[in-house]
Structure formats: C-alpha cells, structure tokens
Known about the structure:
The chain has about 450 residues and is α+β, with helices and mostly antiparallel strands. The chain contains eleven helices and 20 strands.
Amino acid sequence: MANxxxxxxPRFSVDVYQNEYLPEGGREVxxxxxxxxxxxxxxxxxxxxAVPGRRPSAAVxxxxxxxxxxxxxxxxxxxxxDATAAAVDTLRDGTHFxxxxxxxxxxxxxxxxxxxxxxxxxxxxEAKRALRRLSAGGGTAxxxxxxxxxxxxxxxxxxxxxxxxxxxxxNEHESPDDLRAALDACAGRFTCDAxxxxxxxxxxxxxxxASALLGTADIVADPAGLAADFTRMxxxxxxxxxxxxxxxxxxxxxTAIRFVKQVAPAVADLTGRRTxxxxxxxxxxxxxxxxxxxxxxLCVEVPPAGLGREMLAARVSLxxxxxxxxxxxxxxxxxxxxxxxxxxxxxxxxxxxxAHYTGQAELAQVIKQGLDLRKVGDFDGxxxxxxxxxxxxxxxxxxxxxxxxxxxxxxxxxxxxxVRLKTRVAEADEMTLETRSTKTVRVKK
Length: 445
C-alpha cells in the first residue's frame, strides 16, 4: 500500500499480474499493472461540501459551443444552457470556475475580465443568469476555446484544473494543425472531458481532445440528455483528489519498453507520452485520481538469458512530478519479473489478465477499422472486422459494446463472428459505437 501523507486523499496500491516464465531465448515480458486509489472522497459532495484545508483546491472551465449550428433545432441551445447550469449547480463551494462561449472566437461568459469566480450560492446564481443570455451564431474554432480555458485556469493557485467541452459541429474555422498546437500547449496543464451533441460533429476530433487532455469522450445524441451527462461529469471532477499522477517505469540496462497502454476503463496508448525521469526511468501521465482503479498493460523486451536465470524486468511506481524537476512519490510500487525455464507448460501459459486486455485492445482497433472500411464502401472488409469485434465482445463479456455492434450488424453467430452488415444504420448508432469503442470491461480476477 502507498503511504501518501495527507489525510482524506486516496491511498494508492499497485498490483502486478503476469506470467513471469519465458522459454530459453525468450525476450518479451507482458504484465497488467492494476493501480487502485482508495480512501479519498470521504468528506462529502455537492455544493457546500467543502472542508477548508482538507479537500484539494480545484478550478473548472466550462466551454459551451455557441456556433450557429447550435440553433438547429432551437432546443439544442436551450439544452446546452440548462446542462451548463446543472454543472454549475454541482460545483463544490470554493471551486474556482469560469464559463466560456465558443464560436470562431472564445468569449468569457462568466465571470469575465480574465478572472475565475469562486463557487458559492451567489456566484452560481450569477453564472446561471449569464448563461440565459447565451445565443448561437458564428463558426467553430475549438483551439481558441482551449487556449482561453488554459489562461483562465492557470490564473488560479489550485491543485486540480479541469475542463468540460461541448461541441455540436466540426472544427471548421481553424486548421487541424492549429487544434493540435492548442492541445500540445494545454497537455499536462489541465484535464478535459469532451462531449459531442447531436450527429454533426467529428468523432476523431472529440475523442482526440479527450485523449490529449486525459479526459473522457462521449456522444449525447439527444440534446435532452445533456443536463444529466454534465451533472455526472462535474460530480466526477469534484471527486478527484490528486492531480498529475504519473506511472513511473524503471527498467534495468539492456531492456526496452515496447509499449505502455491504459486498458481499463478505456484503451489509451501512453507510449509516446513518456517523459524521461532519470537514468533508465520514464514517466507516463495518467491525469487526476479520486477513488478508482485502472489497469495498464506494460510490455518490456529483455535481453535473453540462460535457463534458471531470473531478473527484474521493470519496476512500476506512482509519482506526482513537481515543477522543479523532482517528483513526489505516492509510495506504491510493483515489480515485473522474468524467469527463464525449460518447463514448456509454464513458459507457454498466458496470464488471464494479459489475454483479456489484449483482446479488449484488439476489439477497440477492429471496431474503428471496420467502421472506416464501411465509410469508404469496402463492405467485405467491414464485415470481417466487425465480425471479429462481435466475436471478441462476446468472448470477453463486453455486453455494452456487443449491444452497440448489434445496431450496426446483424449477428448470425457471435461465437464465430459471423455477421451481416445492416443496410440502414442510424448515424447516431454508428457514431456511438465509434466514440465508445475504446471502453473496456474489467477482467474477472
């Protein structure tokens, strides 16, 4: 167990699941690393629940699409206003916050003047009055929204910084490079959940924003569902206790990390996000944590060794990097081992956890490939990929994904992956499957 010193914040633990046995000459070591945070979030939730000096300080920026398309139908803008008001109502007292209206420019809706407000009964009411004046008109340049959110969030001396972004359209008024530059500038400075409302937005844009900023992405096909979704998002944000946690992986001389992926509750490849952390160590960002558990797949290449030899392939720990280049340890660590044996039964066995999450990662991949092939008219290729997805979802017990797939294909035999593409598929169903394709089910331990 971790020894994180402050009271009322999570204790962290690390558990490693692997088959450490390799055949003679074997070099690839796979392990599932489960990180669990427990014991935080016990102080109370909702408005007025803050306890000075005991909860981490937080700042939240709400970015609301106000482009012209939000007026079609007219109820969409109303639902967006109501959802943002519901999120404001969910803010914990003492939380710094701002509301941003997003078009081809970013506008400070509340409180204005380059400031953040501090949540309390009066400021919540003021913010909701300001929201009533929001109207639709203009284009979409999401990078400008994110940059304004970054400036506002940075103005507060707080521990946790988070954004919530809503869009209903494509990012047509800035280039993909402009959006990527904004995401690069904001990465590591705040986390952000992104939502697409309706069906006229681009899935890869919304999921790309959430991925870059270590948040969640989802579709709200019916604008009437926005208020409930925004409330859930804000409740989750208010439950976070520790910001900027990194998975630190140390490996001995001669080893190489092939990849580090989050595999639950959703698939996210962290390999390319490594920052060096001293000799043979690197940090992989995981974002903010409350009471929760996540799984990571670590694949390490080790130098071959003779039978009977044993080595430490990797050491995994949890840290919070500091601005001065140091890091605060969260106390927990796990060890990944390699043992060479001539016992073929031992060396060929696959860890159930590794097998499960390898299948979940493949499931996310073949769904995306199948939908892409369907869009370009390669129906045979799409059928093969989506059939494999049905097979994987069935085998792993991923019932939610199986239900989404059944809206895109007719399932003849789930066990063999035999399917037929549906001739007519609602755009919302296809977008929901694509947006949620990375969501996984936990392995049954």
